[in-house]
Amino acid sequence: MGSIGDIKKEEIIKKYQLSEKDQGSCEVQFALLTHRINYLVEHLKKHKKDHHTRNGLLKLVGRRRKLAKYLESKNSENFIKLKKKLKLK
Predict the structure, then answer these.
(1) Region of residue 5 (phi > 0: left; psi between -120 and 50: alpha; otherwise: beta)
(2) pLDDT in tens, 45-63
(3) CA–CA distance, 14 with 35 (Å, rounded to integer)
(4) Hey, is 66 helix, strand or coil?
(5) How confident is the model over 55-78, as a mean pLDDT?
(6) What span, in angstroms and rounded, lies between the C-alpha atoms of 73 and 3?
(7) Which residue from 8, 23, 52, 82 has the highest number of Cβ atoms inside 10 Å of its Cβ?
(8) Which range is most confident: 13-17, 62-66, 75-79?
């Protein structure tokens, strides 16, 4: 993920991982996607005509939506906590 940076990515993984060696669980993926989406939203506020980035953002939002649906069906309590932690609706 070129847009987040390796140090920021490691911080996000440590914050949302379920166990010490966890790096790719759904919760971690959801958090990484959310932070990347937030970054792109800020970018698009400055660069309104960047349609290529807008298309990438829409793909990420779709991927996060699918992941959210899966997480909610798998364990709704943890998903609600994760949404609160990420300050999402």
Answers:
(1) left
(2) 999 999 999 999 999 999 9
(3) 14
(4) helix
(5) 94
(6) 30
(7) 82
(8) 62-66
Tokens for 51? 């349609």
Tokens 């943890």, located at residue: 78
DSSP one-letter code for 23:
S
41/47 Cα distance (integer angstroms): 10
Class of domain 9-14+23-86: mainly alpha
- Once rounded to an integer, what is the mean pLDDT over residues 76-87? 89
pTM score: 0.85
How far apart, in whole angstroms, are the C-alpha atoms of residue 19 and residue 25? 10
